[in-house]
Amino acid sequence: MANPLRLPMVPRALRNLVSKPATRRYPYEIRPRFEGARGTIEFDVDTCNYCMLCMRRCPAAAITVSREDRIWAIEHLTCIGCNVCVEVCAKKSLTMSKESKPVHTHAEVGPHGERPGHEEWHKEETQAAEPAVQAAPAVGGASPV
Amino acid sequence: MDSASFLARVGDYHKAGWRLALINVTTVIAAPAPPHGAAAEPAAPATDAPTADAAPASQAASVFEIAWAFAKDREFETIREQITVGDAVPSISEFFGAAFLYENEIRELFGINVTGIGLDLQGQLYKTVTKVPFSHQAIKARLAATAAAAAAASAASAAAAEKKA
Amino acid sequence: MKRTVVPFGPQHPVLPEPLVLDLILEDEKVLDAIPTIGYIHRGLEMMVERVEYTEMGFVVERICGICSFMHGMGYCVSLETIMNIEIPERAAWLRLIWAEISRIQSHLLWLGLGADAFGFENLFMHCWRMREQILDIFEKTTGGRIIHSVNRIGGVKRDMSDTELAAILVQLQDLGKQFKKTANVFGTDPSIAHRLGGVGVLSMEDARAVDCVGPMARASGIATDTRLIGANYYDRIELEPVVETAGDCLARVVVRMREIDQSIDIIRQAIDKMPKGEGMPLETKPRGNPMGEVFTRLEQPRGEVLYYVKANGTKNLERFRARTPTFANIPAMIKLVKGCELADVPNIILTIDPCISCTER
To answer: Which of A10, B78, B119, C19 gives the lowest tally of CB atoms within 10 Å of its CB?
Structure first.
């Protein structure tokens, strides 16, 4: 039978009263993420050759690539951060940044059809503000009408 | 399967001090032919993805393959049996007390009739949307749906490419 | 006497995950317990029908957050066996080190949950404070705190430099010293001894009869440890299974506490024995599609896990089955719950270290 007066937690509890807390005051004091932590996928549109390998290897089907339309799009809310697309990219267009995206507080679709976590790039000299604008004038005079 | 000789073999494992490690069922499905167009994706540069799409030798339909696996220290052995749909399988609860959980599971997920389960849970172990999700019909239905979706997607992309051209 | 049926779960303060036990009571005594799982059955085994075998590893990792690394490793080892891939030596050692770190993480998490279940909030916070250091190690070395995604078929994706490994070892040994003080509380506090000592005794014969695995079996005096089969470089490590003979809830706590020290020692041995240097090969690329079948056994923090993989030469596997340690320990839990007092049920359920996500997949 253990000695009922033996209280090994008491000195510990007393020390806790006077020592510094082990936690941080989170929203005011944020620990930087470690180097090499997997956060968000970043894309460099200039080097991409639209080989579509990332799209086919993505286990979560978060990436959509269209070779014809020159569109590269990612759903950040579907992305599982497995780093596979970064590994397979032959052109090194994809990188994994250590910062995570903040939590999305609104699920509504925006005025131009923006969805939370959706990002897309078009291969044009000047990046079009609205995705709808770029299709027709970009081809210019080459289009046989 | 011959249940008397099967139970005798299980009894031998029990007497020799083996531990029941797993009762596993595989639903043997003859692979369907790949849908038109679904396999014909343009090959990307620098890919080492294998493109072999050879369908495996088709097997007799509606067969379950059951493996009773036993472990003892470093050793690991299995008893394999093939049964057709509708066959009953004898329970091995009398030798291995833990077998009831596996047997209830294979009855609920595969629809195999197991006779004489030690603790019969009356089909309330799992709560699944599809009843008997690993039956031949359910798997074939899902495979067909996946193939149809892939075919539809490739048809849509082909149509889009044509429109573009 | 009148019988009462008390549903235990799916929401219960001690349960981290939904498990339902219909307890049939006579007065305060439990006569029978009928388990129901399936509240978080996600059909992950079914996903092999539409997920390619190279991507399935990421699905398998998500079977459970606590044994995430071991699940990914087990899947990759299974596929490597089928496809006859020899993984580079350093990759195998790195896997072993990460596996042992995740064992420490799991045991610390469980000790905290256990302390919380028998009303020791302060102890719970200390265990989880220590666990946080382990998660930091994971974030530094693999990039993820819970889902590590470093295992690929044929090796691992990241390396740890030798200085980093040495620093990790120092940190872990320091953690081991801190943990000694906490272990002292678990071992000597009279209220813990009252609450857990002699409760839920599983004798060695009973443990053999219900085929239980892992710390549960070792607390009942069975010297079983799947690491002893020597796969995955465990044959190069000196390893003695941690065995307690009492078989009660306290013995199961003690086994897990001693395993933390054992894991730190295994990591020390592994760092000593692994080949040193920078830029060593870490991956052998798989070629072609797998064909064949395999059973793989690993020792997870909760006990032996078993994977069955059957591949038919296409990109999709024909069958993937994971028999997780909790699945094997549920019969033992039901056996223990029968005949105990209602107030002891939470402790008994918790000391098998249930992971219902693992069980249901």
So the answer is: A10
Which residues of chain C make contact with B79, given a CB cutoff of 8 A? none
Taking only the tens place, the pLDDT of each residue in C213-257 is 888 888 888 888 888 887 888 888 888 888 888 888 888 889 999
Q: Do C149 and A81 touch (CB under 8 A)?
A: yes
The tens digit of pLDDT for each residue in C109-150 reads: 988 888 888 878 888 888 898 999 999 998 888 888 888 888
Instruction: Kindly identify which residue of chain C lies nearest to residue B149, measuring between CA atoms.
Output: C50
Within its chain, how far is the Cα of C75 from the centroid? 15
**Count of structural domains within chain A:** 1
Contact C329/C302 with Cβ under 8 angstroms? Answer: yes
Domain boundaries, chain B: 3-31+59-134
Q: Is residue A29 part of a domain?
A: no
Q: What is the CATH number of the domain that holds A50?
A: 3.30.70.3270
Q: Residue A137 pLDDT more than 50?
A: no
Residues 274-293 of C with CB under 8 A from B: 285, 287-289
Residue of chain A nearest C133, judged by CA positions: A22
At CB < 8 Å, which residues of chain A contact B? 51-53, 56, 68, 90
CB C111 within 8 A of CB C66: no
pLDDT of residue C101: 92
* A11 belongs to a structural domain: no
**Residues of B in Cβ contact (< 8 Å) with C212:** 98
Return the number of CB contacts < 8 Å for B and C: 104
Range of the domain at A68: 36-100+114-124
CATH number of C3-360: 1.10.645.10
Q: Is the dihedral of CA C151, C153, C154, C157 positive or negative?
A: negative
> Which of chain B's residues have a Cβ under 8 Å away from the Cβ of C35?
121, 125
Which residues, in sequence order, are CB contacts of C195 under 8 Å at separation 6+? C118, C119, C249, C347
Sole residue written with tokens 């974030």: C139
